[in-house]
Task: structure prediction
Amino acid sequence: MAHDHHHQVPPDPALRVKALETALTELGLIDTADLDAIVDLYQNKVGPRNGARIVARAWLDPDFRSKLLADGTRAIAGYGFPALQGEDIVVVENTSKVHNLVVCTLCSCYPWPVLGLPPAWYKSYAYRSRAVSEPRAVLAEFGVELGEEVELRVWDSTAETRYLVLPMRPAGSEGLDEEALADLVTRNSMIGTGELPAVSPAT
Amino acid sequence: MDGIQDMGGMHGFGALDLAADDEAFHAEWEGRVFAMNWAIMAAAGLSLDAGRAGIESLPPADYLALPYFGRWFSAMCNSLVASGIFSDEQMQLIQRGEVPGLPAIDPAAAPTGGVPRRGLDMALQGNPPQRRIDEEPGFHPGDRVRGRTMHPATHTRLPRYVRGRRGAVVSHRGVHVFPDSNALGLGENPCHLYAVRFAARELWGDTANPHDSVTLDLWEPYLEPA
Result:
């Protein structure tokens, strides 16, 4: 039985994507070197280390912390991170009384300049559906148990505003410099799905 | 549109899969799709809002079944046909992994107004949504508001789970491009944008923790005084 071309099993996505790239290149609409540079940027150069530097500086420098919380976009403008999906950065601060958690229920909006592209779980239907309606159960799956009395603020990224959580500085981190502090900051702590453990004294 | 993308509060997706996942792209093609998206947007003058609308317009079963960048790719292909850059026949070849012979587009007819930006420029310089308008904001921090009841067949960023629910403005975010009109190519129609906080109990009922809340960034046309 002859197969109808329209209903055959589609080839490997890599082949289809390659065909589109070739066709668009031949049309002059895209430039392979441009694509290579974009991939390299988000694969190798932009990631949570950017956010960790911001967090560490905010822990050490009260003036920077104030500016960061007042206008995140302006405060980090000098770092020269790529701007896409960071045009309006809002930084929200975790304290012993308030915990912040970031989600995008409608797609996967995420602050690329400071965290890179999102992990698979952030883009998953489970996270997108549950983070707003049962955030404490979601946090428990990350091993984060909040006290009942802690105010949990979930931020659903419905506009172009992009949220970065300023986690609490871990106990025992006194005296560490900015570089050492940045090493303590995890990606999840800047989304609100992770807490930073106390630093044990150097042995 | 009230489509499958509007997932806030849905049940049935199960527990999180927290397998180690620090890679931006899990296969080479994902990176190419990601990069092409910005290059095409820049070259063809497509808006981010139109791009999101394209993904939401995939049939719900396809949306759920496709991987993340597979959704991007499908929506991108649809928009390239809709904007006249490829014919249906050419796109069918591409979907079979073949490169069509290309007479295709008349650059003068392409939907780009002026000199196309490079995708890399867009990545580096961003695509700021902030605008200026003369109208004063209609709401202020502390104001009680309600998410409007609506049922739009086209793109919106007002999730179902806050429609008809009461919250309070916590911050004025400035004036931003309005996605509902921009996605349709009807202009940016910039509007005041507010962070609006809803108590978890207002959204989910008495079983929610009384200390919890959800805050969304909502444009003025999404809100009414409460």
Remarks:
- The two ends of chain A are 73 Å apart (CA to CA).
- The longest helix of chain A spans residues 13-27.
